[in-house]
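ESCALATION

Customer reports they have been waiting on this structure for their group meeting. Please prioritize. Original submission:
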Amino acid sequence: MSQSEPNDVKPGKKKVIILMALGLLIPIFLVSMAILAVNSDTKNQEKYAQQKADILKKIQAREAAEKLKAEQELQGAASEASDASAAKTDPAADSQ
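Update from on-call: job pushed to the front of the queue and completed.
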């Protein structure tokens, strides 16, 4: 006389319970991974925007420095040319 205890689960029911648990856990896992990916992507986009802004500032500073240097070279060349032409036309400059 063996009676099955109420806590004893049949093997067929055990498979069904496992499949139902997986059926619930897999979608929850996928949704949580999607949320994690979106959050990570947002952080990466912010870092990328900051890096882009830093690079743009560096480029603008370099271009400004190059422009200033070019202007100084032009002014230096113009002053040398005016000094040379003044020296050619001024006879007093030759005697000194």
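Sent to customer with the following note: The helical segments are 11-89, 91-95.
Escalation resolved.
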